[in-house]
Amino acid sequence: MTYITKPQLHHPRLVENALGKTRRDYEGSVSTLCAGCGHDSISAAIIQAAYELDLPPHRVAKLSGIGCSSKTPDYFLGASHGFNTVHGRMPSVLTGANLANRDLIYLGVSGDGDSASIGFGQFAHAIRRGVNMTYIVENNGVYGLTKGQFSATSDKGSKSKKGVVNHDSAIDLVSVALQLGATFVARSFSGDKAQLVPLIKAALSHQGSAFIDCISPCIQFNNHAGSTKSFDYVRDHNEAVNTLDFVVPREAIHVDYEPGTNTLVTQHDGSVLNLHKLAEHYDPTDRISAMAYLAGRQAQGEVVTGLLYVDPRATDLHEGLETVETPLNQLTDAELIPGSKVLERLNASLR
Description:
This protein is an alpha/beta fold. The chain is built from twelve helices and 13 strands. It has an eight-stranded mixed β-sheet, sandwiched between helices. It has a three-stranded antiparallel β-sheet with strand order 10-12-11. A two-stranded antiparallel sheet has the order 5-6. Helix 7 links the parallel strand 7 and strand 8. The longest helix has 15 residues. The relative contact order is 0.12.
């Protein structure tokens, strides 16, 4: 399959978005992952979200590390910028790219091995610095490329395909992201496109560090009885704290909800998150309550999904560093090298 090019012909009646592009224009190469892999469903959700947001593909920079998940950026947004880094180092490369050119939309795609093991420190620092990005972890709880060993996100007590029990405590990435100051935190399931697409749309439009932990079952090594990352387990234990609609500023979307309470959260760019509360008394703008709720449901074996936390007044790394509005890679030599007098004043201010 690796040598087969995806046909470029489009059906003449495909619906176009505001840019005159069809959904096919946001696709990439033919996937080489196992048939039925949850990662391909996430790729399809990213394609759908970018299409519905009318994103110009050339304004998106997609970055990844190493692993099954980190192969997936080749399967979506084929006309975007892309960089496949070394194992666990994607967050640092993304941070550097963001500092150099703040005008791009940054999408980091990683896996539980890439982000929760060798890249755990990289993940932590990118989140705590508030890099303006959407960071998606395709979480299957195993090392799929090396035949299914437990990863750092494998739940304690879960069983491997061969019946081995995991005795190590799991790293819960959404709890870590909340503790480190991420301003948009969500969890979803690759088999729930209705929930995942609006979450990705909202994350891509968020100013600050947006993190989505997406449970994505590995059909080869972690989709059996005893696994807490299988399709059946997540479906049976999924507790959605809200349903989400994402409303962009330029258009009105009329939503017909079942009886319940709605919460409107306006983001920095004017877009609106329309949340329908399912969990009683759940407040997605209260970080501490979100952490307590996650811990409580996790202790009962539940997989909490939905928008877990959002800060509508979030800032990003550039605001904290007070960088100029012009991307650094567009500044001239005269602006980058202001002269000895300016340097002397700067040095004097630091004494």
